From TrEMBL:
Protein name: Lipoprotein
Pfam family membership, one: YfiO
Alphabetized UniProt keyword annotations: Cell outer membrane, Lipoprotein, Membrane, Signal
NCBIfam families registered for this protein in UniProt: OM_YfiO
Limits of the Outer membrane lipoprotein BamD-like domain: 34-221
Superkingdom per UniProt: Bacteria
Organism: Flavobacterium aquatile LMG 4008 = ATCC 11947
Cross-referenced InterPro entries: BamD, BamD-like, TPR-like_helical_dom_sf
Amino acid sequence: MRKIISIIILVLFVSSCNEYQKALKTEDVAVKLETATKLYEKGKYFKAITLFEQIAPAYKGKPQAEKLFYMHSMAYYKNKQYGLSAYHFESFVSSYPKSEKQEESAFLGAKSYSKQSTVYSLDQTDTDKAIDKLQIFIDTYPNSQYFAEANTIIKELKTKLERKAYENAKLYNSISDFKAAIVALDNFVSDFPGTPYKEDALYYKLDSAYQLAINSVVDKMEARLNTAKLSYGSLIKFKADTKYKKEADEMLARIDKELKQFTK
């Protein structure tokens, strides 16, 4: 019985391959469309795309075009070719404004951009673009069934940008450019007031101010020590039981000790 089933599967596989090869070679666009549609429905997106690309120019303006171009766009998306799916979905939305697939296509086109967003440590150009595209979708379709998902994706993308901004600001502390670190971390906290990295940012701002102060020439030290003391206060005010309490208290003790020389 197993042998018979295996033979049947093999026959169907060979038949399917032969059908695809015939469709590739034929000049009959109707055969290509029929085969491409079957392949698409079976989830064989790469092969379907190859046939769709062959016949797309011939079907422009024809009744079958709307369904063809929708499947073509979706095949790219399902095949994880997000750059191409973004382009083709946007083209579909522009070409078929009254299509019942228009809203879905607009959403998937915008979502395709988000799929190209890289990890936070790399360039975030695609992330910015994805946020813009998704926001346009939300503004265009405020009652869409995809509204909540679009908002969730935007939130995830903005979190990535937030992490990028924090790491960039913190980097100045890591390379001992303490003046730049203070400015960058200050700007970060201002730009992202509700950030989950606020405690960390305030600590590294304190550390930067502290390092800058204790390594200063005498005529600049007093003012910088007082600035560092204010940074300590900001951290403790934000979170009295901060995870950096031990380090912060040690810095404060050194700051107070150094300040005594200016009160004599």
